[in-house]
Design goal:
The protein is an alpha+beta fold. It has 2 domains: 31 residues, no CATH class; 70 residues, no CATH class. The protein is 35% helix and 23% strand. The chain contains 2 helices and 4 strands; from the N terminus they run H-E-H-E-E-E. A hairpin with a 5-residue loop joins strand 2 and strand 3.
């Protein structure tokens, strides 16, 4: 059976499923931004990203967000391109800019 053959409905189902997966992947990619070391966004305090494992980055991000009193600052994970490492960026939510890296 050819899944792309028209008339049997299977091609349409396959396209719908594929579109759903692409949308899910897009949402996941939006959650984790990607940066290149040396070409990362400027911060308010001039800090640079610290390369860490995913587990360490999540721990630091969660600790920062739990202690945070001001709602305008929020820690987010940032993927370091061409590696399996991450960094933690503190975002200024009112202007959507990187405030600092921790």
């Amino acid at each position: 059976m050819n899944p792309t053959r028209s008339g049997d409905g299977l091609g349409i189902e396959l396209k719908v499923t594929l579109n759903q997966r692409v949308q899910e992947m897009s949402k996941e990619q939006e959650k984790v931004k990607k940066i290149y070391i040396g070409y990362h966004p400027r911060t308010h305090d001039g800090s640079s990203p610290q390369k860490r494992s995913l587990a360490d980055s999540i721990e630091i991000m969660e600790a920062f967000n739990e202690e945070q009193i001001e709602e305008r600052l929020k820690a987010e994970l940032v993927e370091i391109a061409c590696s399996d490492l991450c960094a933690v960026a503190v975002m200024e939510t009112t202007i959507c800019k990187v405030w600092q890296y921790i």
